[in-house]
Amino acid sequence: MKHRRNWVIGIILAATAGFVALQSVTAPEADISTATPSITNTSTPFFTDTPTLAHANEGCGYTWAYHDDPALTEKFDKAVRDINPDASARAELFGEDCVYADGSSVFSAMETDFYVQLPVDNLTDEEAFGNWIAQVMSFTTQIPDDEIQGNDGFVEFSFIKSETERIIFRIPIATYLADAKDKSGTELYRFFHAQ
Q1: What is the sign, positive or negative, of the torsion defined by CA atoms of 122, 84, 76, 40?
Q2: What is the pLDDT at residue 173?
Q3: Lowest mean per-residue pLDDT among 7-16, 84-93, 102-111, 166-175
Q4: In terms of Cα–Cα distance, which of 110, 20, 114 is closest to 62?
Q5: From edge to edge, which strands make up the β-sheet containing 105-119?
Q6: pLDDT of the residue at 76
Q7: pTM of the full predicted structure?
Q8: Which pLDDT score is estimated for 116?
Q9: Are 32 and 60 a contacting pair, CB within 8 Å?
Q10: What is the rounded distance in angstroms from the CA atom of residue 76 to the CA atom of residue 143?
Q11: Strand 105-119 relative to strand 151-160: parallel, antiparallel, unpaired?
Q12: Would you say 81 and 93 are in contact if contact means Cβ atoms under 8 Å apart?
């Protein structure tokens, strides 16, 4: 009986030691110095921070991220204000932050998006809204490719009467170029607002 008890205690101790040993082993970390990013278009990714050699043996965690594009915002806002001085506009990059343990990060842009706000007296002037959209989209689609990061994004239009009364919708740039670049006025407005 003693022999059996000692045998069971020995098995339990061996299993516990094996379990503890497995718990203290960590998986090898990926060597990102040889990793190559996968990009679905020919645009160059936009980096906001360059990793240092200290990151060569560290992995990073990816998170969705938005970053302002100050240079493009300045150009885009000026063009929109030239059409209507009461309007405002900005450009924003959407992509992924690769965040390292030390808090530093590298951003890769997936697309450039635009946001336009126009104060209005009423929310029913579809003809005027459509013509305004046509002017803004005409400028947006003429921005040189080297100023755009990632794929075609969208232009979000906000027609604002008050804090509680507004119309907001997005126009995918690729859809506009393929299906609506020859539209204007009410036809253009309804084409995207209905979606």
Answers
A1: positive
A2: 97
A3: 7-16
A4: 110
A5: 61-68, 88-99, 105-119, 151-160, 166-172
A6: 97
A7: 0.69
A8: 98
A9: yes
A10: 9
A11: parallel
A12: no
- For the chain, the structural domain boundaries read 66-92+110-193
Nearest to 66 by CA among 133, 153, 146: 153
User: Regarding the domain delimited by 66-92+110-193, which CATH topology (the fold level of the hierarchy) does it fall under?
Assistant: Alpha-Beta Plaits (3.30.70)
**Which pair of tokens denotes residue 10?**
């020995």
Nearest-angstrom CA–CA distance, 4 and 122? 90
Average of per-residue pLDDT across 172-176: 97
The number of angstroms, rounded, from the C-alpha of 86 to the middle of its chain's C-alpha atoms is 27
d(CA 39, CA 110): 8
Percentage of the chain modeled with pLDDT above 70: 70
Count H helices and E strands in the chain, helices first. Answer: 5, 5
Contacts of 6 (CB under 8 A, 6+ apart): none
Round to whole Å and give the CA distance between 53 and 165: 52
Place of tokens 């040889």: 34
